[in-house]
């Protein structure tokens, strides 16, 4: 899978660095050990953060800044990492879907980057392009219905949008039958070392909890 960063993203965030993680996996409905890790992060954040101070985490702060530069209100269309950690701080349970979805959420929580997890076999074509959503561009967010992505950063395949930092698309979502995983990490803060560490963390998680193999990642700018 090739990922291209458009000029319109480069203009609002010239330091952007992303990572594309790919792996062959075996999904499951639930993994208690994985949830033990998720809950440990919740304990840590409740002891160290507030719903205001979490906005200062590097990845979240940078994503919010890009939203504003693109014309989107980040408090109305919250980046996924912020929304997940915010739920933890409010003592609200995270939604449990399946092991791949829960794993991607953990990786986002741990590093503060809004990342997308996809069933790669559902992509149309072999190239994804990161651009900015347009007015009236159709987009069905997972569990959210039709989502107004005008002004949101968005990955598109040959058919259309597949992922934004707020919500991924129903068309390419992971399921219990997913065997080819693609995860996209959005480093709007330009911290290449942290993006690499997040990618390596995901590879470790898929090997540990999803029988992951042929796991690799590449950076893109």
From TrEMBL:
Q: Which GO molecular function, any one, fits this protein according to its record?
A: RNA binding
Superkingdom per UniProt = Bacteria
Recorded hits in InterPro entries, A to Z, give: B3/B4_tRNA-bd (IPR005146), Phe-tRNA_synthase-like_B3/B4 (IPR020825)
Domain B3/B4 tRNA-binding residue range list: 61-211
Q: Which Pfam families match?
A: B3_4 (PF03483)
Q: Which PANTHER family match?
A: CYTOPLASMIC PROTEIN, PTHR39209
What protein am I looking at?
A: DNA/RNA-binding domain of Phe-tRNA-synthetase-like protein
């Amino acid at each position: 899978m090739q990922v291209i960063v458009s000029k319109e993203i480069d203009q609002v965030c010239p330091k952007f660095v992303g990572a594309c993680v790919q792996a062959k996996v075996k999904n499951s409905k639930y993994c208690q050990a994985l949830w033990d890790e998720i809950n440990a992060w919740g304990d840590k954040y409740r002891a160290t953060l507030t719903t205001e101070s979490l906005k200062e985490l590097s990845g979240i702060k940078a994503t919010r800044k890009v939203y504003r530069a693109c014309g989107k209100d980040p408090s109305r269309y919250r980046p996924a990492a912020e929304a997940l950690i915010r739920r933890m701080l409010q003592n609200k349970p995270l939604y449990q879907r399946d092991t791949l979805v829960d794993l991607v959420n953990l990786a986002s929580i741990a590093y503060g980057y809004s990342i997308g997890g996809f069933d790669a076999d559902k992509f149309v074509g072999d190239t994804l392009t990161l651009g900015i959503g347009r007015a009236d561009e159709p987009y069905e967010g997972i569990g959210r219905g039709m989502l107004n992505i005008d002004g949101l950063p968005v990955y598109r395949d040959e058919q259309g949008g597949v992922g934004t930092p707020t919500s991924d698309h129903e068309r390419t979502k992971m399921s219990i039958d997913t065997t080819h995983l693609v995860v996209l990490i959005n480093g709007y803060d330009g911290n290449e070392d942290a993006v690499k560490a997040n990618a390596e963390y995901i590879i470790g998680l898929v090997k540990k909890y999803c029988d992951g193999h042929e796991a690799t990642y590449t950076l893109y700018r």
